[in-house]
Design brief:
Shape: globular
Radius of gyration: 19 Å
Largest sheet: 8 strands, mixed
Number of domains: 2
Number of strands: 8
Helix content: 40-55%
Order of helices and strands: EHEHHEEHEHEEHEHHHHH
CATH class of the largest domain: Alpha Beta
CATH topology of the largest domain: Rossmann fold
Oligomer: single chain
Distance between the termini: 42 Å
Length: about 280
């Protein structure tokens, strides 16, 4: 792992900013870039607030927080990633947009650099095939919120080399997280189980059960720290809908069919916490 010194993160949303934070905190020189300057600003501010909370709770010293921010650079363009050993993509769940990004990165990075996707549902094998280095492509799927959640799903594409996989395993360990090896099928491990559960909770809302009663029941009845509807709002209802549609299309089973109420909420722009309204008001 000693050869991995500089990491690039593309996408400054909740996931990308979180990944950048843990990479910089763990000692890596980290570049964070987003096509939206507004997203970059929000992402950077979010990282500062997150580090401040850790300091306040005495889980981090002020010096550690300051050093983390010094190691975290704002990217100006994709060309700035040319010296990175590893680039992790954390942008919108859209294959065409990701494919275009990886094609551009392919020409910028050194041949030895590793490309990774934080996708939660798209085929790693398919994304890897859009590059000239499929053996150096891997899925590194972090859980939300990244600075707190310990789990990272590693997904090998058909072409992923043992060396690339081992590098990803060592990266996760360096970030003080724990990896599990998933399967390159829609939803991988966690979302394959979690999204249908959330979807079923939404069907209950459509049938007249209050969201707070569903969440309370799951927290007290199954010891979940957060109810499925609160979690859905936190993840983003648009993201949830996209994952369910991919799972239904790719796996060909109606059990993944999104609840019509979920579709309506997304059509209304009620995406959850990030839009101010979902199953709850924020």
């Amino acid at each position: 792992m000693s050869e991995l010194k500089e990491v690039g993160i593309i996408g400054a949303g909740q996931m990308g900013a979180g990944i950048a934070q843990v990479c910089a905190l763990s000692g890596f020189e980290t570049i964070l870039w987003d096509a939206s300057s507004e997203a970059m600003k929000r992402g950077r501010e979010g990282i500062k607030k997150s580090l401040a909370k850790f300091v306040e709770k005495e889980k981090l010293t002020q010096n550690d927080a300051d050093d983390t921010l010094k190691r975290l650079k704002n990217g100006d363009s994709l060309s700035q990633f040319s010296e990175c050993n590893l680039v992790i993509e954390a942008i919108i769940e859209n294959f065409s947009i990701k494919e275009k990004l990886f094609s551009e990165l392919d020409d910028i990075l050194s041949p030895s650099a590793i490309l990774a996707s934080n996708t939660s549902s798209i085929s790693i094998t398919k994304l890897a095939a859009s590059t000239s280095r499929p053996e150096k492509f891997i899925g590194i799927h972090f859980m939300n919120p990244v600075p707190i959640m310990k789990l990272v799903e590693l997904i090998r594409g058909l072409q992923t080399s043992d060396e690339t996989y081992q590098c990803a395993v060592e990266l996760v360990e360096k970030l003080s997280k724990i990896s599990v090896l998933g399967i390159d099928r829609p939803g991988f491990v966690v979302n394959r189980i979690l999204c249908p559960m959330i979807n079923e909770a939404i069907f209950l809302v459509a049938e007249g059960v209050a969201p707070e009663n569903i969440d309370q029941a799951m927290k007290l009845g199954t010891n979940h720290p957060m109810g499925p509807l609160q979690l859905a709002d936190f993840v983003g209802l648009d993201t949830l809908l996209y994952i369910l549609r991919i799972m239904q299309d790719e796996l060909g089973e109606d059990k993944y069919r999104p609840c019509p109420l979920l579709t309506k909420y997304v059509e209304a722009g009620w995406y959850g916490k990030k839009s101010g309204r979902g199953f709850y008001d924020y």
